[in-house]
Amino acid sequence: MYRNFKEDPFFGGDAKCIVVWQEGPFVNNSAILRAEYGGNHTVSAKTTLLSSPGYTVKNVLHAESLTVPGLGFNLTSVYTDCSRCKVFRHSYIENGDELSNFIHHGKLHAAT
After folding, report:
1. A Gene Ontology molecular-function term (predicted)?
2. The model scores a pTM over 0.70
């Protein structure tokens, strides 16, 4: 994951590289995602796909922390190409003006 902001209070702090993976399939629009950063930190969240107002497609990923009770946030899809990358807007940083780019694992290694 790459981002255009320095620090994320909920998702990796100031780590330069964050690896995210899905634990099992989405069931009823929800799945568990895990993120690893800083070499030895792992966070887990139950994620649910939602639709933002005016949309019928599920373009919002709502994450609820499994380790910090009451911590939840939204990531809104700006661009998705499932075989290459996904770009998300972070609702909780700079009024939603900041973006992150999740690059598919196979594409990341092909580029290096």
Report:
1. amine binding
2. yes
Q: How far apart are CA 59 and CA 57, in angstroms?
A: 6
Distance CA 6, CA 62 (A): 22
pLDDT digits (tens, 9 = 90+) for 78-106: 877 777 777 777 777 667 666 566 666 65
Look up tokens 């499994």; give the residue.
66
Separation CA 88–CA 74 (nearest Å): 9
Tell me: the pLDDT tens digits for 47-61? 999 999 999 999 998
Q: What domains does the chain contain, in order, with CATH numbers?
A: 2-111 (2.40.128.20)
Query: What is the b/e burial string over 43-54, where b = at least 16 CB atoms within 10 angstroms of the residue's CB?
Result: bebebbbeeeee
Contact in structure between 17 and 3 (CB atoms under 8 Å): no
